[in-house]
Design brief:
The chain has 330 residues and is mainly alpha-helical. It has a single domain, classed as Hypothetical protein af1432 (Orthogonal Bundle), CATH 1.10.3210. Helices cover 48% and strands 7% of the residues. The chain has 17 helices and 5 strands. It has a 3-stranded antiparallel beta sheet with strand order 3-5-4. It has a two-stranded antiparallel sheet with strand order 1-2. β1 and β2 form a beta hairpin. α4 packs antiparallel against α5, α4 crosses α10 and α12 runs parallel beside α17.
């Protein structure tokens, strides 16, 4: 059994058709862990098999499972279709590391300009506007820290690939979920039982600490700076960022200096922390987007209001200070 089989034993034909388009197939070579999986940091190195392709299918299946609505499901499926190589590393490249939204800008254009996707959309009486913005469908996406299909999938996905949870534990949490109205009278994926809500929120915080760890921030900024150097030196073009990671890595390795730096990137396995910027060594001091989830139960109560321990853990995470210089070593 794999993650997708947990979300649904099968999925509609329109999903199968769309995942075979060239634009969507590209996501099979775009990782979920933003290039960090190419390093040798022990925790980050585990995510090599988890791709935007798997994640996007998962989101679509979850949306379909809860809504049986084709527009919402396709919007969920295509929400990451504009992801560049190394995904949110390009947000770091764009100076958008705190919100990580700059990589979503081309979604509508890619869908509109794809002959194959347009043909399938027309077959099902869908338009680009129906599916280019999954933010308009609250089961697919909503404002943080609410639970949506997107946050649900990457939380369960990373919990599985990081080995924080077994497949049976993930299934048990997923099977506890239903959709009901929240305190704003909007549909939200919600837990039935408090123990499952606490288990999910706890592992989501474990994931969150990985996403903003010193290792993660260092790896993403290093890779962003490497891409910038490659673009400045004409070794890469901006258009190359929307190809596959394998293609970009191959291009980096055609330049001796960039090849050496990327090889060093893959060897990093430890971080060194300094209060002051160290001399003559690559070092970063950057913040990162703090992702967390505070799901509701069918009673419309948030898990943080029902578990004082979890509430303290969330507050502690949100107060973590990133004002430190981080270097990599091996």
């Amino acid at each position: 059994m794999n993650l997708l089989h947990i979300y649904s034993k099968d999925y509609p034909k329109f999903i199968e058709e769309l995942i075979n388009t060239p634009e969507f197939k590209r996501l099979d070579n775009i990782g979920m862990n933003c290039g960090c999986e190419y390093t040798s940091f022990p925790i980050l190195n585990r995510g090599k098999e988890y791709t935007r392709y798997i994640h996007s299918i998962g989101v679509a299946i979850i949306v379909w499972h809860f809504t049986k609505d084709i527009k919402q499901s396709v919007a969920g499926l295509l929400h990451d279709i504009s992801s560049p190589v190394f995904a949110h590393v390009v947000d770091f490249l764009n100076g958008d590391h705190d919100t990580q939204e700059s990589t979503e800008e081309n979604t509508e254009e890619i869908i509109e300009n794809s002959i194959e996707i347009q043909k399938i959309l027309k077959k099902y009486n869908l338009t680009t506007k129906d599916v280019c913005d999954y933010h308009i469908y609250p089961v697919a996406d909503n404002d943080s820290p609410l639970l949506s299909a997107d946050r649900l999938e990457y939380t369960l996905g990373n919990a599985y690939y990081y080995s924080f949870k077994s497949i049976d534990e993930i299934k048990s949490m997923y099977d506890d979920l239903v959709v009901c109205k929240n305190e704003a009278n909007i549909d939200e994926i919600s837990f039935t039982n408090l123990d499952k809500a606490v288990e999910f929120t706890s592992v989501s915080l474990v994931n969150s600490r990985v996403y903003t760890s010193h290792e993660d921030r260092f790896a993403m900024q290093y890779l962003a700076d490497l891409l910038k150097e490659a673009i400045d030196n004409k070794a890469l073009s901006l258009e190359d960022l929307y190809k596959t990671e394998s293609e970009v890595i191959n291009k980096l390795c055609m330049d001796d200096n960039l090849k050496l730096k990327f090889k060093e990137f893959t060897k990093f396995s430890k971080v060194v922390l300094n209060k002051e910027k160290p001399n003559e060594v690559y070092s970063i001091n950057v913040s990162a987007k703090k992702r967390y989830i505070n799901p509701q139960l069918t009673s419309k109560e948030r898990v943080s209001s029902l578990s004082s321990e979890l509430s303290k853990d969330i507050d502690k995470y949100l107060k973590e200070d990133f004002n430190i210089w981080v270097s990599g070593t091996y």
